[in-house]
Amino acid sequence: MTASRPVPACCHDLEGGLVVSCQATEEDFFSDPSLMAGFARAAVAGGAIGIRANGPADIHAIRQAVSVPIIGIQKVPQPSGKTVITPSLEAARPLVGAGADMIALDCTDDGQRNGALTALRRIKAELRVPVLADIATIEEALAAQEAGADFALSTLRGYTPETTQYQTFEPAFIAELVRALRVPVMAEGRIETPQQARQALDAGAFAVIVGSAITRPTEITRRFVAALRHGHQSRNAVWVGIDLGATNTKSALVGSDGTMSHSSSVPTPWNGGREPLLDHLASVADRCLKRAADEGWSAQAIGVATAGWVDSNAGQVVYATELLPGWTGTPIAAELERRLGLPVAAENDANAAAVAENRFGAARGSRDFVCISLGTGVGGGCYIGGRLSRGSHYLGNALGHVCLEPEGLPCSCGQHGCLEVYANAGAVVRYAGDPSLDTAEKVIDAARSGSPAAREALRVHARRLARGCASIIHVLDPQMLVFSGGLTENNPFLVADLEKELRPRVSVWSLRRLHLCLSRLGYAAGVLGAASVAMEPPGVA
Ligand SMILES: [Zn+2]
Predict the structure, then answer these.
(1) Cα 401 to ligand 1 centre (Å)
(2) How many angstroms does the Cα of residue 507 sit away from the middle of ligand 1?
(3) Which pTM does this prediction carry?
(4) Chosen CATH of 364-520 out of 3.30.930.10, 3.90.230.10, 3.40.50.920, 3.30.420.40
């Protein structure tokens, strides 16, 4: 594929090879040209076919030590505090004088605003060396190619404000660059393993540039130490669990054994749109982190359980109803990670509750179970074969919208006759038909006090709920149904009524060892689930 691309004569030897970036920051112990030359020599001895280096002093020393091509750069601090790579012809000239064979420069949007494309043309015309464009997006690479860049380098992917969400090496981006460009592409940035370097070539890269993973001993040591600490997590490790509901936001610090501390509940600013909600989540998390610090605990990560459907891989809301206006599309994890500096996981609240039941609750150790929450809405989470099932678009588990009555009552989802309308708290009040019993809680209390009418209302509720559950059981054949939510509070009738109603509605009942039970986690399930998701992603079935 690269054969048809124009490659400057001095660069042919780089094809398919490894370029090692030998750079040290000023605070680094190796910030010395002779030591950088030693790194370059070691890299070439190991088979590197090129070196990338910063500044005339290092380049001069490296030129004396090795004969492979050198990509020269000059990092120039700006008044804004940002460092820009080779912003001008003047910055490039001494590099070529010191022995650089080609020059790389920042051609991101930011760099282009500061005249990068003009600098690129002048470097090429006046210094007569190949010019390599460090970019973060396809559009930036195309602009650099138009200006005459000889190569595009993925160096700055993840380092510009528009690309902060890309924190790991992505072969797919390299493949996209290769498809979009006429000039050859070199893969650089966040390549940490030999396997990733190989993936870059497989994706069509002309060459691969690796820096920190080879030439930064402090960084490499830090990775090893972090891995050891992770495997030896101390007893004071805690996770922040946040359950964002449309009414209240609950939070707590959660230990690896599920112990909760510093629980709190505050009203959710539900109607302000995305930014106030993110500010709210950040401040709730920040309060938890301060408490953890006060206790001398080490916060590991933050989990957010939220109403709405969530792409838990991306940590982003796929769709939220008008209960949380503006929430659709919010990149919760990326935004909070940026603000809080800790890993953040996000999950749908009902799914998070299922994760909590599996880790700490009634479904501990169960591989196939369904959690059903019965409150204002009816929702659920399913485990299939030991993994949380989310559906291919993260839109699964809408158990409340299983259809019971095709011509039935209208539902919040726009359909008619959904299970939710016949099994939620409002339905229980409707079945009681007594103006003095205007909440489900009052109906349940009245049934417990011996009211035959209230008791009958709960039976009707169980009969309707059983119809929906029978459909779920027929599809999934679970070991266990775990019920939670307001309708399960102080309700000693639910499980017995439901079992009685299910028996005649589920085929081959006698061969199933289906267990019905109530959640023991109650209102903590959301917070525990959020923290659980942050501890370890539960995988996708
Ligand atoms: Zn519905």
Answers:
(1) 4
(2) 25
(3) 0.58
(4) 3.30.420.40
